[in-house]
């Protein structure tokens, strides 16, 4: 009896979902490699608060592993979880460094948020929020996330860069050559673009694992360029070596202790107004980031039913809630579902077995951190750009002849990349959908919960 017909098929219903262990494995490793950057970035961001960087790395890997396994067990979906980008920056730079709270207090706010999430998931409130969003907006969320993660990929590759005059602009090879910066940054832009081209060719030729092969191809080119001197790492510019560093010997394979940050929950300021504002901000952003990711990725994977509902969503939301609570105890910021899960879905991942493989790689990363930390952002950028293209296809399901549907969808789509936030895209979409339909006499299209959501989003902009 093959593995597919054995326990794995029984647990994850592989045959029923038209997938195999091999497909799920390729999807899992693809998802992991596109989000492995969190292992390097999260410690850098959170350590600005004074937290121990090594302990944060361990907490990040374990919280990601736990949350992703829970997603597999509770919902059987191919979605991966990890400490969310944006939320970790809010934790470190706003709550701790700007507002002056200790990182222990910030962790307690995340912990309380997680407890509230658990209650909301048990009472079906979060599921009701998901179901209340019209199908048009769900398709728009999928397309918007596509543009959003494509923009992330372009930034990671530095194809698109910050510019004081125009806010963002295309990378300048002329300026790079003139400043002598080409061998540090310019060459990685070239490698990323080659990675996009290589992945696109593999896709057209229907090569299995094309996104993963694109990542490996770009990384290997980076290694060759570093060995030959074409790529010169410069940590000051956040351009690091792409060759795994094993110089620490056995210590390189030993996870750091979480003792400095584990269980450091502080409820001293829990009854203050500022604490409530911080906790609510975490809560609000995480709810709609998670809902947006679930909507977008599940739409891409054709997991929504005829009514636009996601089966087993309660389990998915519960996994997110428990992971957030446990992550706070471990010592990391809010754990949430990652949009990079779309890369694994694009590789054919359809069940929780994909998530299990992602979780195993996070666990393995504790002992092979030099390897995983060497995966450069410019190597995973092609995957994000290509997946952005695949998710943008959802836009064809929007009825553009009906302006009460298409204008809110349009605002949802453009707000995600332009505001650099999934939750802001949902906010723009919900508010505009309610107002446009209300003021044009189409009140029957608006559910009570959509009215409530619109009011909450408006209040967020006024008070937070």
Architecture blueprint of SSEs:
Layout: H1 7-12, H2 21-35, H3 37-46, H4 53-75, E1 81-83, H5 87-98, H6 103-122, H7 125-132, H8 135-157, E2 160-163, E3 167-170, H9 173-179, H10 182-204, H11 210-228, H12 273-300, H13 313-330, E4 335-337, H14 341-346, H15 352-365, H16 369-372, H17 377-392, H18 403-419, H19 422-439, H20 448-463
Antiparallel strand pairs: 1-4, 2-3
What Rg do the Cα atoms give? Answer: 22 Å
Overall tally of domains: 1
Residue share in helix: 55-70%
Main structural class: mainly alpha
One letter per element, helices H and strands E, the order comes to HHHHEHHHHEEHHHHHEHHHHHHH
**Low-confidence spans: pLDDT under 50, at least 5 residues?**
none
**Secondary structure: number of strands:** 4
Strand % is under 5%
Can you put this structure into words, describing what you see?
The protein is mainly alpha-helical and 464 residues long. The chain has one domain. It is 65% helix and 3% strand. The protein contains 20 helices and four strands. It has a two-stranded antiparallel sheet. Strands 2-3 form a two-stranded antiparallel sheet. A hairpin with a 3-residue loop joins strand 2 and strand 3. The longest helix is centred in the middle third of the chain and has 28 residues. It is globular.
